[in-house]
Specification:
Elements (H helix, E strand, L loop, with lengths): L9 E3 H8 L3 H13 L4 E3 L3 E3 L5 H25 L2 H19 L3 H17 L4 H28 L1 H7 L1 H12 L2 H26 L4 H11 L28
Antiparallel strand pairs: 1-3, 2-3
Helix pairs in contact: 1-2, 3-6, 3-8, 3-9, 3-10, 4-5, 4-8, 5-6, 6-7, 6-9, 8-9, 9-10
Length: about 240
């Protein structure tokens, strides 16, 4: 969920257990759960693969994120405690420090912590569980492509997190509408850069491009689309499996 492993990366059960410092048994149990959720795929010869996220799947998940995370931000503005608010502020400060220091992967981990601190403040267990499942599916691709985009231009990364300041201000003011707008604006920035990554690493049809552009601009996808043209193909990055 935090992007530790890249889309398409293959992992061996034993090497993964060694990396995590545990036996193979709990790894198998965790992999079985994540496979049921669609976050991992088990291959022959005891390899685990992180699935690649298609553009069409991302569009569908982005629509769900807007509904669920926007609602969570609204609820958080109404229910957040001073302790939770202080934790969110500290996490955002750590995120910005990593950004200034050029530690993009660390910044993305703090970004995850920031978002889920807000969502947990909603006090809605099942809502947070639903959001968690979506992030399990998009996490590897999201962190890969955003880290690539932000690494190209540090100013993009800094401006991309300005919506966090707007969200914190809305939480302090207990302004539910402003909190929802801030979280949706934050998603619009990230989805625009995600688009660049998907264009390079996936097959994106014109229909998918239209929908993704609409969602990036906070517009609903249109159903009156022009005839579909062939997908834009780009070579997939080669990722070596971890040896046993």
């Amino acid at each position: 969920m935090q992007g530790e492993f890249a889309p398409g990366q293959q992992l061996a059960f034993r090497s993964l257990a060694e990396t995590l410092g545990v036996s193979v048994t709990p790894v198998r149990e965790a992999v079985a759960t994540l496979t049921e959720l669609g976050a991992l795929r088990v291959l022959p010869k005891r390899y685990i693969e992180v699935p690649r996220l298609s553009a069409e799947a991302y569009i569908e998940l982005l629509e769900l994120r807007r509904l669920l995370e926007g609602h969570a931000a609204r609820r958080a503005a109404q229910r957040i405690t001073p302790v939770e608010l202080d934790d969110i502020k500290r996490t955002n400060a750590a995120l910005l420090q990593h950004t200034r220091d050029g530690r993009h992967r660390e910044a993305m981990k703090e970004n995850y912590a920031f978002h889920f601190a807000v969502y947990r403040a909603s006090g809605a267990r099942y809502l947070v569980e639903s959001i968690t499942r979506i992030w399990l599916l998009i996490g590897p691709s999201l962190n890969l492509h955003l880290a690539e985009e932000y690494g190209r231009d540090l100013q993009i990364l800094r401006s991309g997190f300005e919506n966090h300041d707007h969200l914190i201000a809305a939480l302090v003011a207990r302004d539910s509408d402003a909190a929802m707008r801030a979280i949706l604006s934050d998603m619009s920035v990230s989805s625009a850069h995600m688009l660049s990554g998907l264009l390079r690493a996936s097959q994106l049809t014109d229909d998918a491009l239209i929908d993704l552009s609409a969602l990036s601009a906070n517009r609903p996808p249109t159903t009156n689309q022009p005839p579909r043209r062939p997908a834009i193909k780009a070579p997939l990055p080669k990722i070596r499996p971890i040896s046993k």
